[in-house]
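Hi P.,

Sorry for the delay on this. The queue was packed all week, but I finally got your sequence through. Input first:
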Amino acid sequence: MREMLRLFVVVTLFGAISGGILAGVRAGTQERIEYQQIKFVKGPAILQIMKGCTNDPLTTRFKIKDGKEERAFFVGVFDGKPNTVAFEATGKGYGGEIPIIIAVNMDNDQIVGVGVTTHRETPGVGARVQTDPKFTSQFKGQSIKEPFKVKGDGGKIDAISGATVSSRGVTGAVVSSGEIYNRLKSNIVEKMKSIKS
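Then the structure:
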């Protein structure tokens, strides 16, 4: 019985020490892992739609609590002023969720650009929502408060031929981003005050 108790104590101590070490390693590398994900997954879209900004929007960022979620916002400095913010939203496509990055000019609430980060849409068809700049450029210059729809649903966005569901997914993500923006705008404005140009 004494041997069993000793074995139990040793195993428990080993488990506690191992768990502590793993938790420490995770905490120590979490920020680095997050930056790598930003740089290689979201970064290309952010840098493309924030082209012309004088700062690095991947490092000039902040987070805001939105219900149970924490959202990341990437700041772009244009004309010497931090006036553009990019963030992520998702829509439902043919193959699943379609995450987008959308950039908005805080001075006039206009969309600066939209970029699809990842997707599981059909290659060569629905995948064109990410690769066809004519599709995403339709949102540029429009108000983020606009109720976007594809033309087939009574809106003014031209869907990609043969990829209506994927086009609806991106359009839905833009609508969702408008809801996020409206809900958090005052918090975003407050955080932007601390950004140096």
